[in-house]
Automatic annotation (TrEMBL):
Entry keyword annotation includes Transmembrane: yes
Residue ranges crossing the lipid bilayer per the database entry: 17-41, 53-81
Keywords: Membrane, Transmembrane, Transmembrane helix
Entry protein name: Multidrug ABC transporter ATPase
Species of the source: Microbacterium paludicola
Keyword Transmembrane helix: yes
Domain of life: Bacteria
Length: 89
């Protein structure tokens, strides 16, 4: 099942790049989200998040997860179009 059958179109480089970008951004966002949860449980207050690297850590999940979703959606649409073209020929 893991091997491509002869009828499947080959996986392009852009597909792999989009997949790894989406995965990397999603993982970074989830890690930052857990860092915020752990630091809040450890007793950090709202004022502590305004200094150091915490402003970046708090913004990454807000921006990263929608970007990862859009990349996955783009990858899905490109895959559907690629398979549709391969099915017609």
């Amino acid at each position: 099942m893991s091997a491509n059958s002869p009828a499947d179109p080959p996986i392009r480089r852009i597909d792999r790049i989009l997949a790894f970008m989406a995965l990397g951004i999603a993982i970074a966002s989830v890690l930052c989200f857990f860092a915020i949860m752990i630091s809040t449980a450890a007793g950090m207050t709202r004022d502590d998040y305004s200094t150091g690297i915490w402003p970046i850590v708090s913004v990454v999940p807000l921006v990263g997860l929608p970007i990862a979703f859009l990349l996955i959606l783009t990858l899905l649409i490109m895959s559907i179009v690629r398979r549709g073209k391969a099915g017609r020929s």
